[in-house]
Design goal:
It is a single chain. By secondary structure, the protein is of the alpha+beta class. Strand 5 and strand 6 form a beta hairpin. It has two domains: about 160 residues, Sandwich (Immunoglobulin-like); about 260 residues, Rossmann fold (3-Layer(aba) Sandwich), CATH 3.40.50.410. The chain is globular, with a radius of gyration of 27 Å. Strands 11-10-9-12-13-14 form a six-stranded mixed beta sheet, with helices on both faces. A five-stranded antiparallel beta sheet has the order 8-7-15-4-17. The protein has eleven helices and 27 strands.
Length: about 575
């Protein structure tokens, strides 16, 4: 039976209007009724912006016991009223017998009480303040030995975080994103996932090889006046390839951060890498050309600024760890052309170190996080992160720019002397459409499904088209919970569908955004409520195991649904899975 034959209703174009008033704690929508016009939706969002603040003294020790009166918050330089206040201070040592275990915390909404002593604090952190920690191992930009040293410290640290109720996710990147372990607080699952990561390749040495080859080509070209002009060509080829890899790497980080949009509570990401170049080719430029202006023209800080904006938009605190450890020579072999003496090698290594570590700093500090560099003591690194996770203040206020799509700066000041604050520098106030898109991506990458509408994905057999396949994909949407507005002899609704695919190598397709208007005759409504509508799409995808996520947004009620499903394409002896994983 054809897919469309199983759909009792077809989508139609909206031709008239209706009236309805909807309200909730965070949003209201007013639809004006005017015969013969389209449905007009004016949504007024009240967006609560939560700012995670870390307060330390001059020695770096976290300070607890502060109240809302100790803080001043500014958005775009203008003071805003803090309406939500929450404080957490987890004891650094186990409590005596008889004392409740777990974090000590205090929280209020609309008004705040000072956090003074453990006796006055709530012993449990509420769900909206629980931590989701995503650990991102950048296999493409890390060397095997460096990764192993970090993993040795990471194992015990993550086990400890699960014991205090944090949820952990493990992701790797090697020119494609792989969710090795979805969010869990099961320490056994985390340990098993870390072992699987240890068995994957760490490809940072490939960059050493590329740079060494480029260095040798440039040096050889410069030795002969006849071929000297080719030296710039070799440099530009290396820079172009490095920039392409950098763009892929930063886009992957960006998409993973976006996938955390649908998470409740606090969110943090630990990025583990040997660093990324702010200025591709800077070391080679300095070694062979001494042209600082050429290096400045190759500045790619915009990639890292985009990550900061994404992290701040999703309220993700970004931590980065230079897995290379203490500063030292990257690779002696790349100086095998003998063009650099010992002092020169030290200078070039220092230049390269600053280049690669600068990116880690730039991605972390504006989000309120920290870049951990120049240390082999990764256990101390983990301890310092734990202190952040266990000692913080959450300050919430109602942004006056709900969903305007613009970036707004945030500044938090502490009234007490001798203390400093660390927090994210701003946020991008995303529109509701952008937020739904982010949550659809969260379903794809992190498996975060939320499906009150009961949507389902169904597939027909894929047909080969050149090197790819066409996969007929049906998005089935039950009518029962879709908001419909009466207008004369019809009932009308307005849905929006978002569709995205991840291939077997971790590549993510562009997001499809599809308006989906609905019109149902009023005398057919009762029967229609027992049925479903559907949207059929021909997806052009590659061979292998594909992951498809769909989001459906009911624009009239604001209801959002997200689900994902795997399908096997093009493998002999295997058929496309049809309905094996339905929306939950």
């Amino acid at each position: 039976m054809d897919l469309l034959e199983r759909i009792p209703l077809r989508r139609c174009v909206l031709r008239s209007a209706a009236c309805l008033l909807l309200s909730s704690a965070l949003a209201s929508a007013v639809m004006a009724q005017q015969e013969g016009s389209s449905i007009f939706v004016d949504r007024v969002d009240v967006n609560i912006v939560n700012v995670e603040v870390f307060v330390t003294d001059r020695s770096g020790r976290h300070i607890d016991g502060l109240s809302v009166e100790d803080f001043e918050v500014y958005e775009d330089g203008k003071p805003v009223e803090v309406t939500n206040f929450f404080a957490v201070a987890r004891p650094p040592a186990p409590e005596p017998r008889g004392t409740p275990a777990g974090p000590v915390s205090s929280g209020t909404t609309e008004s705040a009480a000072p956090a003074t002593t453990a006796a006055t604090l709530t012993p449990e952190i509420p769900p909206e303040q629980r931590l989701h920690l995503l650990v991102y191992i950048d296999n493409f930009n890390i060397r095997p030995g460096n990764r192993e040293r970090v993993m040795a410290s990471l194992d015990g640290f993550l086990e400890g975080r699960t014991q205090v109720g944090d949820r952990i996710m493990l992701v790797t990147y090697d020119r494609g994103i792989e969710a090795v372990q979805p969010f869990t607080n099961n320490s056994a699952d985390i340990t098993a996932a870390l072992e699987r990561i240890r068995k994957t390749r760490a490809n940072g040495l490939t960059e050493d090889f590329r740079r060494r080859v480029a260095s040798q080509q440039i040096a050889a070209a410069l030795r002969d006046p006849i071929t000297a002009a080719y030296a710039r060509t070799y440099l530009e080829q290396y820079i172009d390839e490095t920039r392409a890899y950098l763009q892929q790497s930063t886009r992957a980080v960006d998409s993973v951060i976006r996938s955390m949009a649908g998470l409740p509570g606090r969110k943090a990401m630990l990025y583990v890498s040997d660093g990324l170049p702010q200025r591709p080719g800077e070391q080679l430029i300095a070694q062979y050309f001494g042209d600082s202006s050429l290096s400045l023209r190759n500045n790619d800080t915009s990639y890292f600024q985009a990550i900061v904006r994404q992290a701040n938009a999703q309220q993700v605190t970004f931590y980065s760890l230079d897995a290379r450890g203490s500063v030292g020579s990257f690779s002696t072999a790349e100086y095998s052309d003998d063009t650099a003496g010992g002092v020169e090698r030290t200078r070039l290594d220092a230049l390269r170190t600053l280049n690669y570590q600068g990116a880690l700093i730039d991605m972390s500090e504006p989000t309120g996080g920290t870049a951990f560099i120049n240390t082999y003591n990764f256990d101390t690194v983990m301890d310092n992160m734990a202190k952040d996770f266990d000692n913080f203040y959450s300050l919430g206020y109602a942004s006056p720019h709900a969903g305007d799509g613009e970036y707004h700066s945030i500044d938090v000041k502490i009234k007490r002397p001798g203390m400093s604050v660390r927090h994210r520098s701003g946020f991008n106030d995303k529109s509701e459409v952008e937020r739904v898109q982010d949550k659809t991506l969260a379903s794809l990458i992190a498996g975060l499904d939320k499906n009150p509408l009961g949507i389902r994905l169904e597939f027909e057999e894929a047909k080969k088209k050149g090197q790819k396949y066409l996969l007929p994909t049906l998005i089935r949407i039950p009518i029962r919970d879709v908001t419909l507005l009466p207008n004369g002899k019809v009932e009308e609704g307005r849905l929006r569908i978002f569709l995205v695919v991840q291939d077997a190598k971790g590549g993510v397709s562009p997001m499809q955004d599809l308006p989906y208007p609905v019109t149902i005759p009023s005398d057919k409504l009762e029967a229609a409520r027992q049925s479903a509508i559907g949207s059929l799409h021909q997806l052009e995808i590659r061979q292998g195991r594909q992951k498809i996520a769909v989001g459906v947004w009911d624009e009239l009620s604001g209801t959002e649904s997200f689900t994902h499903q795997f399908v096997e394409i093009g493998n002999k002896g295997k058929k496309s899975k049809k309905g094996k994983r339905s929306g939950r």
